[in-house]
Design goal:
Layout lengths: L2 E12 L2 E12 L3 E5 L6 H8 L7 E6 L4 H9 L2 E4 L11 H12 L6 H9 L12 H13 L5 E5 L7 H16 L3 E5 L3 H7 L2 E6 L2 E7 H6 L2 E9 L3 H9 L4 E8 L4 E8 L3 H7 L3 E8 L3 H15 L1
Parallel strand pairs: 3-7, 3-8, 5-6, 6-7
Antiparallel strand pairs: 1-2, 1-4, 8-9, 10-12, 10-13, 11-12
Length: 306
C-alpha cells in the first residue's frame, strides 16, 4: 500500500491551547479521505500543517513522500488546495485570474479551465470582486482541479454552493480518485463524506474520536429497531430489554396476542434481537443510521469520556 499522506504524533499548540494532539494519519494513494469534526476540532489546523502553512509543535509529516517543510515549490505544484476561507478580490476577471494561476501551478491542458467552469456554472468573464460567495468558491475549485494534481486538499469545498453544483463537485471528486489522484476532504456536510469518502477520521477537540471506513462508522451509530411479536407479553419484552445495555427510548405496546416494539439501539443489535426473541418475531425492521447520527453519537461519547 502506497501512502499519499502520513503523520506520526502530529501536534500543534498555541501557547497553553493544544489545537491538535498526537495525530497519526495515513491516507492511501488514490483514495478519498474524509475529515469530519465540528468547529474547533482541529481539521483546518491539520490541513495547514500538511501544506506547511503552519509548523507542528511535535511529530512528523510526509506528503507525497516528502516532508512539506523541505518540498518547496515542486511539492506545492503537485497539490490542489481550497482553503476554508477563500479570499478573492480585485477587478481581474475570473478567467484571467485562473490563467495566471495556471502559469504558477504547472501545465494545464488546453480547454480544461473552460470545461471545469462550465460544469460548475461559473461565468469566467466577470471580475472576481463582483462574484457571490458561491461563485468565488467555484473559482477556488477550478484552480484546485485544473492541473490534475496528485493530491487535492479541500477544506469545506462546497461552502456556498447550491445542491446541483455540490452534486457536480462530488462527480469531480470521484473522477479524480478514478484517475489515481488522492483527495483529502474536510466537510461539515456529512452527506458529502458519506457519498464520496473511502475512509474517515473524526476529530473532536483536537483528538481522534474514531477512524475507519464509512461503513464501520455507520455500524457504530444509533439504529431504531421495530418489531412485531406474538407468543409473549409487553411486560415480558420490557423486562427483557431493560437488561440489555445500549438501549433507549423503549416503546412496547399491545396485548398477549400481538406486541409492537420500537427501541433505539446504540451499537450491536444482536443482544436486542435475542432479548425480544422470547416471543415469535413476525416482523422486524432496523433503520440504518446516517453518518450524521453516527458522528453526533461519537461526539457525545467523547465528551462523556473527557
Amino acid at each position: 500500500m502506497t501512502l499519499a499522506i502520513q503523520t506520526v504524533g502530529l501536534s500543534k499548540s498555541y501557547g497553553s491551547h493544544e489545537a491538535l494532539h498526537d495525530l497519526d494519519l495515513t491516507v492511501r494513494t488514490g483514495s478519498v479521505f474524509g475529515l469530519i469534526g465540528p468547529n474547533g476540532a482541529g481539521k483546518t489546523t491539520t490541513l495547514r500543517l500538511l501544506l506547511d502553512i503552519i509548523r507542528p509543535s511535535a511529530g512528523s509529516v510526509t506528503v507525497l513522500g516528502v516532508d512539506p517543510r523541505a518540498g518547496g515549490a515542486s511539492l506545492r505544484r503537485r497539490i490542489g488546495y481550497v482553503p476554508g476561507e477563500l479570499r478573492l478580490d480585485g477587478r481581474i476577471k475570473g478567467g484571467a485570474l485562473l490563467r495566471h494561476l495556471a502559469e504558477l501551478s504547472g501545465p494545464v491542458a488546453p480547454g480544461t479551465i473552460e470545461t471545469l467552469a462550465e460544469r460548475l456554472g461559473l461565468d469566467l468573464s466577470r471580475p472576481v470582486h463582483a462574484l457571490s460567495k458561491g461563485n468565488r468558491q467555484k473559482v477556488g475549485l477550478v484552480q484546485a482541479f485544473m492541473h490534475r494534481p496528485d493530491l487535492l486538499v479541500l477544506d469545506e469545498p462546497t461552502s456556498g454552493l447550491d445542491p446541483l453544483v455540490q452534486r457536480e463537485f462530488l462527480a469531480m471528486v470521484r473522477e479524480a480518485s478514478a484517475n489515481g489522484q488522492t483527495v483529502l476532504l474536510s466537510s461539515h456536510i456529512l452527506s458529502e463524506i458519506q457519498q464520496a469518502a473511502d475512509d474517515v477520521l473524526v476529530l473532536a477537540d483536537g483528538r481522534v474520536v474514531a477512524e475507519g471506513d464509512v461503513a464501520s462508522l455507520r455500524i457504530a451509530g444509533t439504529r431504531r429497531l421495530h418489531a412485531t411479536l406474538t407468543g409473549t407479553s409487553p411486560a415480558e419484552i420490557r423486562a427483557a430489554l431493560a437488561a440489555v445495555e445500549g438501549t433507549d427510548d423503549v416503546d412496547v405496546t399491545g396485548t398477549a396476542e400481538l406486541v409492537r416494539v420500537a427501541v433505539t439501539v446504540r451499537g450491536d443489535v444482536d443482544p436486542v434481537v435475542r432479548a425480544i426473541a422470547t416471543g415469535t418475531i413476525r416482523d422486524l425492521t432496523i433503520e440504518e443510521p446516517d453518518l450524521e447520527e453516527s458522528v453526533l453519537d461519537l461526539y457525545a461519547r467523547a465528551k462523556e469520556a473527557s
